[in-house]
Design goal:
By secondary structure, the protein is mostly helical. It has one domain. The chain is 84% helix and 0% strand. The chain contains 16 helices and no strands. The protein is globular, with a radius of gyration of 21 Å.
Length: 441
């Protein structure tokens, strides 16, 4: 029995959710460990280099391709739910070859544009060279990163969320050991944390490819005989490109926000960098609900179980509301202690704590965006969520940053772009979801 298309919905969601959440946690821990070690053992300038404009540029390049790979994950889950083994096998091969090709292209783009993008975003001269060095090393590891993430998407699409978690745990502990060795023992600084991340991505890619290759019970994958199916590639692109563009436009708006943050100096940049590391607790939890719901929706859509999709959406909204309440409470009451894990610099602490206490209460507004988007994407509808997000989040946010912020250039005016756009986009998603247009094949 397929537990996702039959049986208790809550149990199926939670059984799928927790391994993905832990996996997302360990994936985010890669960069967080980098920030902690750099902030403690190198200095706040290095911390700003790792977590400022460079972090946003990483999200821009990686996020675009990750959005495209989501198209493959949706098709895999639908084929698995419909028990179409032939299409499933072709989709797996096409997705892996696409990851290899895309990784090579994105590596070239990332390395060549690293310094120009940093200059455009007004990255301070004090951290420009360090940021560029970090990015160039980081982007050299995009091929294994993309392959690992695609393998994880393949495994999740067939209902296996535990194996990607185990691979990530191995990679994360390897990353911690290499970070400490490269930074403390070998005194490699920013180059050390970037190199450690790349090596661990290679390790994760090798393990995940071997795991996928051994899943003979679901599909027969021979790495030496893989081929790309043009028809399936077209379906992946139709589903994935809107998602990739959405992610890129989202990050571009964040890049412009980073540019505005840079205006306030190194202390604000470092405070914002740390906020990004702790803020990810909320984002990865909410995103995990969306990922779990996308796979749940995809398999049940393929099996024609539409009522289960709707019930799962409401259940997931309730679970997300409960988890967000805990996160907001923690951020509002314990933010100072959390920030001190990264730095003891008083100016950085004050700037960062102000940021987190202002934005955290607005997290509740964002929940619907991730959950409802996950539902409709699983049903194979990618264009509508993209358009809603592009206009509701990206376009409106850019208008605010270019029109309202210059008139009153304060930190809170910059930060208000988040709750404003979250509210408008959430309302638009509810209108679309309740219309039931996403259920049409």
């Amino acid at each position: 029995m397929n537990a996702i298309t039959q049986g208790n919905i809550l149990k199926a969601l939670l059984r799928f959710f927790f391994p993905i959440l832990l996996g997302t946690f360990f994936q985010q821990l890669y960069n967080t460990v980098d920030a902690v070690i750099v902030g403690r053992f190198v200095g706040k300038e290095a911390l700003a280099a790792v977590g400022g404009s460079s972090a946003v540029f990483v999200q821009l390049i990686v996020g675009f391709f990750m959005g495209i790979t989501n198209g493959g994950g949706v098709i895999i889950s639908q084929c698995f739910g419909a028990k179409d083994s032939s299409s499933l096998e072709k989709t797996v091969q096409t997705s892996l070859l696409m990851s290899l090709a895309g990784g090579l292209v994105m590596t070239s783009i990332g390395i060549s544009l690293a310094r120009p993008i940093l200059s455009i975003t007004r990255c301070p001269e004090a951290v420009l060279d360090s940021s560029a060095r970090y990015l160039m090393i980081f982007f050299s590891g995009l091929v294994p990163m993309f392959i690992y993430n695609m393998c994880s998407g393949i495994l999740r699409g067939i209902g296996d969320s535990k194996t990607p978690l185990l691979i990530l745990i191995i990679g994360c502990f390897s990353n911690i050991i290499l970070d400490l060795a490269f930074v403390i023992l070998l005194d490699m600084g920013i180059a050390g944390v970037a190199s450690a991340t790349v090596l661990c991505q290679v390790e994760s890619a090798i393990i995940s490819i071997n795991v996928v290759q051994k899943r003979k019970d679901v599909f027969n994958l021979n790495l030496l005989k893989m081929s790309m199916d043009r028809k399936i590639l077209g379906r992946i692109m139709r589903l994935g490109i809107p998602s990739g563009l959405q992610g890129s436009l989202y990050v571009i708006s964040n890049l412009i926000i980073q540019t505005n943050i840079n205006f306030f100096g190194t202390d604000s940049i470092a405070g914002w960098a740390i906020y990004g590391k702790i803020d990810v607790i909320f984002w990865m939890t909410t995103a995990t609900f969306g990922i779990a719901l996308t796979t749940f929706s995809g398999q049940n859509f393929g099996a024609g179980q539409y009522d289960r999709i709707k019930k799962a959406t409401w259940i997931t909204l309730g679970l997300s509301l409960a988890s967000t309440s805990v996160i907001v409470f923690a951020f509002m009451n314990w933010s100072q202690g959390i920030y001190r894990l990264f730095t003891n610099d008083q100016e950085v602490l004050e700037k960062g704590i102000e940021m987190v206490r202002y934005l955290a209460p607005f997290y509740f507004v964002y929940i619907s965006i991730e959950i409802l988007s996950g539902t409709v994407r699983g049903a194979g509808k990618s264009l509508a969520p993209t358009l809603i997000t592009v206009f509701g989040v990206c376009a409106l946010r850019l208008l605010w940053l270019f029109i309202a912020v210059p008139a009153n250039q304060t930190m809170r005016m910059v930060l208000f772009s988040y709750p404003l756009t979250w509210t408008v986009t959430s309302l638009a998603f509810w209108v679309y979801f309740l219309s039931n247009r996403w259920l049409k094949k």
